[in-house]
Design goal:
By secondary structure, this protein is of the alpha+beta class. It folds into two domains: 2-117, Trna Endonuclease, Chain: A, domain 1 (3-Layer(aba) Sandwich), CATH 3.40.1350; 126-273, Trna Endonuclease, Chain: A, domain 1, CATH 3.40.1350.10. Helices cover 23% and strands 31% of the residues. The chain contains six helices and 15 strands. The strands form three sheets. The protein has a six-stranded mixed sheet with strand order 1-2-3-4-5-6, sandwiched between helices. The chain is elongated.
């Protein structure tokens, strides 16, 4: 929880100079993790920063010993976007040179209270309560795997934004409002950099939850967003077709699906079959 508080505080501090999109994990409930579970998290940049017409991926660290894995990551993905690294010690924040790792003092930083990150009352939708969340998550992971295979085949480099957190194995999430649902990754083809998200489907319905689509639209302030519709066999073992949709600000037909009349965006007129 302490590192989450620090990252939240740095995000607020950076808003003075940047438009900030938080990429870091936010704990969606009153959970306790073992050290092994924390160590098993995927390394993911903490922020996407926008300054005028420039974009940066950024990390925040609290122990200078973390520099080796951060520098290795930056070296691997340096062709994507420029990187920034910020170091927090006590109530001071420094910007770190990504080559020499020398520190430049920036300012004092106000660390927000632990209570500001607590979830409060729990909110868990029906799909968590009836036990279908875990099955849906496993099926969704198959879609993500197929999209990564496709990107690799097309020589498109990808940054995985999935946290590999214990949330992936839970039967439900305590507070969905706190869950930081990011696209599955960031891809780069030539000079084009974009978010991508996989939607695994059993039947050819090109629809996305309206709430999710609005979140995709909001992220377009930083990068374009592509949704890959992955149509799998019913058992999820084989891929049948692959389509792509470029998220946009067009007006789309809203449908009501399922027993709970869930609002979804119909994208059937704006998809392209690619495999």
């Amino acid at each position: 929880m302490k590192i989450q508080v620090i990252k939240e505080s740095v995000s607020k501090f950076l808003e003075k100079d940047y438009d900030v999109l938080d990429l870091f994990y936010k704990m969606p409930g009153d959970y306790e993790f073992t050290k092994k579970e924390w160590d098993d998290f995927h390394l993911v940049p903490d922020y996407l920063l926008k300054y005028q017409n420039g974009l940066f991926l950024a990390f925040v660290i609290v122990e200078i010993e973390e520099k080796e894995k951060i520098l290795e990551y930056i070296k691997k993905y340096s062709s994507f976007l420029p990187f920034k690294v910020f170091f927090v010690k006590d109530d001071e924040i420094f910007e770190v040179d990504t080559e020499t790792f020398s520190k430049k003092y920036l300012d004092k930083i106000k660390i927000i209270s632990d209570s500001a990150t607590k979830t409060g009352s729990w909110f868990s939708p029906k799909k968590s309560q009836d036990g279908t969340w875990l099955k849906n998550r496993e099926f969704g992971k198959r879609g993500e795997e197929e999209v990564i295979k496709y990107l690799n085949l097309m020589k498109i480099q990808a940054i995985d934004l999935n946290f590999n957190s214990p949330d992936d194995e839970r039967s439900g999430i305590q507070d969905w409002r706190k869950f930081n649902k990011m696209p599955d990754g960031i891809a780069k083809k030539d000079d084009e950099v974009y978010f991508f998200d996989a939607k695994a489907k059993r039947s050819e319905k090109w629809v996305v939850n309206e709430r999710d689509y609005k979140k995709y639209q909001a992220k377009m302030e930083f990068l374009p967003v592509k949704i890959y519709f992955v149509y799998l066999t019913y058992d999820g073992k084989k891929i049948r077709k692959l389509f792509v949709h470029n998220v946009n600000m067009n007006e789309h037909e809203i449908l009501f699906m399922g027993h709970d009349k869930n609002k979804v965006v119909d994208l059937s007129e704006e998809v392209e079959e690619i495999g």
